[in-house]
Design brief:
about 230 residues; Rossmann fold; Alpha-Beta Plaits
Length: about 230
């Protein structure tokens, strides 16, 4: 069953998120107050509708409350963004991901209890879509022909196993570029946790809980590896 997402606000940022999610097989409800923006995207997503996202009944009428996640990408009207986010919290949405255009806006959103806050200056829409579809992927870099380089939290099923035991190439057609691991160090007389790259992994290298695996391969193979070993 396809993931179901709503994207509210179809400026350049929201439009890119909605299109990318749809291209990757998600069922997307695209929402904007502007009929022109809705018209531009209607043929590329499952549903596109022009409505006022600060109207609770309008949101409920389009089953926003049943979405796996909702992205609030409104950029030009912070009041509308705040009201929309508040309504989504009232609807008990599983995940609310909200745009912020300044540190002040981020502070206000955090005070509302919004924990996933995005800045278009820091993240492009395609990366947001990847995070929605694969929460285990921390960062990724898209390559031509369906290949990606991704940073993945080590799945539970492969923790404490060696690279040779996992058989990344044989079973999943993936290459492990390196591993990032936290170490405790002393700074200014106090212990701190610092992330280090451990270099080129050997077949005997063991993966530990909390390690980040830097993988390269086809998008479908990466998804398979994550889902099988989650």
């Amino acid at each position: 069953m396809a993931n179901k997402f709503a994207v509210i606000g179809l400026g350049r940022f929201g439009n890119r998120i909605a299109r990318t999610l749809s291209q990757r097989g998600a069922e997307v409800l695209a929402i904007d107050l502007s009929p022109d923006r809705v018209e531009q995207i209607k043929d590329e997503v499952a549903y596109a509708v022009s409505l006022d996202s600060t109207d609770l009944k309008a949101l409920e009428a389009h089953d926003v409350q049943h979405m796996d996640a909702v992205v609030v990408a409104i950029g030009e009207n912070f009041e509308a963004l705040l009201l929309t986010s508040a309504l989504l919290k009232d609807l008990k949405i599983k995940r609310i991901i909200t745009r912020s255009s300044s540190p002040t806006q981020t502070t206000i959103l955090k005070q509302m209890g919004i924990t996933e806050i995005l800045s278009p200056e820091d993240e492009v829409g395609i990366n947001v879509a990847q995070r929605l579809l694969n929460p285990d992927v921390i960062t990724f870099f898209e390559l031509p022909d369906g290949y990606e380089i991704v940073e993945v939290v080590t799945p539970h099923a492969v923790v404490n196993k060696s690279i040779a035991d996992i058989k990344l190439r044989e079973k999943y057609n993936l290459n492990l570029i390196t591993i990032k691991r936290e170490f405790e160090e002393i700074e200014a007389g106090a212990p701190v946790r610092v992330m280090h790259t451990i270099g080129v992994p050997k077949p005997t290298s063991t993966l530990f809980e909390g390690d980040l695996m830097i993988l390269m391969g086809q998008r479908s193979d990466i998804k398979k590896f994550i889902e099988i070993n989650r």
